[in-house]
Amino acid sequence: MKENGKQGIRGLSAVCLVGVMVFLLAACGKKEDSGSNLIISEEKEERIVNLFSPMEKTMPDVENIARTAADKTVIMAEEKLGVKVSYRTYTAEDYQDRTYDDVTLDRARNDMDDIYLLNPDTIMVLGTEGKLMDLSELACASNLRDVVKTANTVDGKLVAIPQEVIAYGLFINKDLFDQYDLELPETPEDFLECCKVFKENGIETPVGANRWWLETFVFAQAYADLYNGGNTEAEIAALNKGESKYSDYMRPGFEFLQELIDRGYIDAQKAYVSEAIEGEGEDFLSQKTPIVMAYWGAANTETSYGKTDFEMLVTGFPSSRGPMPVVAISGLGVGINAEHAEDAMRTLEVMLSDEALQVYTETNQVISPSKNVEVDCIPALKPLNDRIRENVYVLGSNAGMKVEQWGNTCLIVRKLLNGATVDECMAEFDRLQEESLK
């Protein structure tokens, strides 16, 4: 299977991040058509804000009985401001082989919309190119968690704000761990020991993996100290200047993955071709494999891991500092030359207010970007949530780093799965860093 270069990076970002933010709506019948000429006339006088995203209202002119979390916040803005948010949406059928990120970059560079739902790599690219407005003056910005500000600040400007923080963790079959008297793993050594016990007791593949999310193990080990050692800004500055090397940070995580592969704890060939959850989910739910990795929302969703026949716990990835959540931040941004810039900014102000985020967070049971908004999580998520509340985490995406993290690391992990050596993978990080310094 061949790599697809930059298109691969953008495609996987859509799967990993914006993909978990796509919501469908249910509708219950049309309103009466009372004079098409009058309707057209009224539409011309409406204040429109154009939003480009994978989301859409199902028949926006009908009365909906099931409003998604994101759409509820849009409705709040429409009602408060008297604007109409016009959804311009991406579908693979419309754009054929062009990924969501490809299309978003093209539209933002050509000032085609007002608001964009952005993946981490596009936040970094568009922020660096000066194509996004600074949102730091919005009142809601003062309520943001530090992790959000860190991830989405480019050249000193806060260029995107999300409606949720996407946290990744280890999903663990607690019943199987109890059966073999195993504690939840905290360090890489703990994790290897758990896998060894499972393997010795006839569990063929202890870790269910897919081609998108194994980089979470790498990030947890690579950046545990960088984000939790009190010297984050200086270390990132050194990386951006080339004074230190990404490969030095990444090597322990890649060596750990290689050891998992060598010992048969991960099936590299299966992981290389498996889609997220679709590839490993069945084995996890049928208790053939005790460990998988996924994002927070998968624990709440019955179509993912929200309904198991065993006790499930979600914890952080093994690191030198204990269980480590990996956080990826997407966000809503406003084009620098947006046609309806003022209304777009005011719309975001409402959508990202604590009031709106409370509605969003309660509806989707997720982590809010606002430090003022909390919801009770299900018991399975408590170990992961406890660490995040302690401000212990690493970022899998950081627009302040000159080398894009999530997509590039994922593609290099896939090289490892396909037989590349750790040294060859580190050489690829060195190459990317050298390019960023030119």
Which features characterize this protein?
single chain, alpha/beta, 6-stranded mixed beta sheet, 4-stranded mixed beta sheet, 20 helices
Give a short synopsis of this structure.
The protein is an alpha/beta fold.
Layout of SSEs?
Layout: H1 5-16, E1 26-30, H2 36-45, E2 47-53, E3 62-66, H3 69-81, E4 83-89, H4 92-95, H5 100-109, E5 115-118, H6 120-128, H7 146-151, E6 153-154, E7 157-158, E8 166-173, H8 174-179, H9 188-200, E9 207-208, H10 215-222, H11 224-228, H12 232-241, H13 246-262, H14 268-273, H15 281-285, E10 291-295, E11 312-315, E12 326-328, E13 331-334, H16 341-351, H17 354-364, H18 382-389, E14 394-395, H19 406-417, H20 422-437
Parallel strand pairs: 2-4, 2-5, 9-10, 12-14
Antiparallel strand pairs: 1-3, 5-13, 6-7, 8-10, 8-11, 8-12
Helix pairs in contact: 1-19, 3-16, 3-17, 5-6, 10-13, 13-20, 19-20
Give an account of the 3D structure.
The protein is of the alpha/beta class and 438 residues long. 44% of the residues lie in helices and 14% in strands. It has 20 helices and 14 strands. It has helices at residues 5-16, 36-45, 69-81, 92-95, 100-109, 120-128, 146-151, 174-179, 188-200, 215-222, 224-228, 232-241, 246-262, 268-273, 281-285, 341-351, 354-364, 382-389, 406-417, 422-437; strands at residues 26-30, 47-53, 62-66, 83-89, 115-118, 153-154, 157-158, 166-173, 207-208, 291-295, 312-315, 326-328, 331-334, 394-395. Strands 8, 9, 10, 11, 12 and 14 form a six-stranded mixed β-sheet that branches. A four-stranded mixed β-sheet has the order 4-2-5-13, with helices on both faces. Strands 1-3 form a two-stranded antiparallel sheet. A hairpin with a 2-residue loop joins strand 6 (153-154) and strand 7. Helix 1 (5-16) packs across helix 19 (406-417), helix 3 (69-81) packs across helix 16 (341-351) and helix 13 (246-262) runs antiparallel to helix 20 (422-437). The longest helix is centred in the middle third of the chain and has 17 residues, at 246-262. The relative contact order is 0.18. Residues 1-16, 21-43 and 56-66 have low confidence and may be disordered.
